[in-house]
Amino acid sequence: MSLNADIPLASPPRYARFSRRLRGMMLDWVITLIVTFGAVLAAVTVGSDNFSRALGILVVTALLLYEPVLVSFTGGTVYYLTNLRVVDEGDGGNISFLKACARVLIKGLLGLYSFVILAATRRNQAIHDLLTRSTVQIRDPAKALPGQYITAGGEQHITEGGEPANPNMPSGLRRVVVICAYLLLIFIANAIIIASVLSPRCIYNNFCSGSEHAVSFVESITFLAMWR
Predict the structure, then answer these.
(1) Start-to-end CA span in the chain (Å)
(2) Which end of the chain is more exposed for a tag (fewer CB within 10 A), N or C?
(3) Highest mean predicted confidence (pLDDT) among 48-57, 136-145, 194-203
(4) β-sheet bridge partners, residue 85
(5) CA 117 → CA 89, 122, 187, 194, distances in Å?
(6) Quick check: helix, strand or coil at residue 215?
């Protein structure tokens, strides 16, 4: 009998598919939208330029640090709700705060274009993953459903019969539709915020009060954050 017969084999990393990652992005988007609407409502209600500026700085700072802080300390933002975790390729732990900041910066610059190479990589990595030597993996394999991940070689989980474990996985067309719907929601939310809190004089003639400038600045940062 082999001396290693009773030693369980380590479970291979399970790299999240784009559909799973998109769900996490949408949850982040919802949180960003709630925070922004709350800040805008507070600024409009109080009606003080000084308060609006201070609140704008606070909200922008929170949005900028939201992902780097949570990813570096916990492995993800609300990724735990989608059973995902950002992992450092070097040691298998959480990535550092600087790497998390770099990921946010690259995602902010590239937006969804960062994901165009996802299917061409062995670990389902986007550009911001590759440049920061990180991956997005399933946090708890026991809770993962077939079709939500691939293994290192890019293989889908296969059943004992040799068939894909999830033949009902969404088609490429459905995924494209979901992405387009996500982008449409971003633009609609942006338009609603602008129309509901900024005066026509500010929108069309750029004659804005101090509070409107603060609200516009927060809204612009939020719009960029939604593309992460």
Answers:
(1) 53
(2) N
(3) 136-145
(4) 137
(5) 18, 10, 24, 34
(6) helix
Residues in the chain: 228
Residue corresponding to tokens 């030597």: 133
Residues 48 and 54 sit within 8 Å (Cβ to Cβ): no
Look up tokens 């593309």; give the residue: 227
DSSP state letter for 93:
S
In eight-state DSSP terms, residue 156 is B
Classify residue 163 by its DSSP letter: S
Within 23-101, strands assigned E span 84-88
* Residues 61-109: tens digit of each pLDDT: 888 899 999 999 999 887 678 889 999 998 889 999 999 999 998 988 8
Q: Which helix (H) or strand (E) holds 98?
A: helix 97-110
- For tokens 């995924």, the residue is 175
pLDDT digits (tens, 9 = 90+) for 21-34: 888 888 888 888 88
Q: Which amino acid is at 220?
A: S
State the pTM of this model.
0.66
Tokens of 146: 């077939």
- For 137, phi then psi, to 5°, come to -120, 165
**Given the structure tokens 């800040």, which residue do they identify?**
39
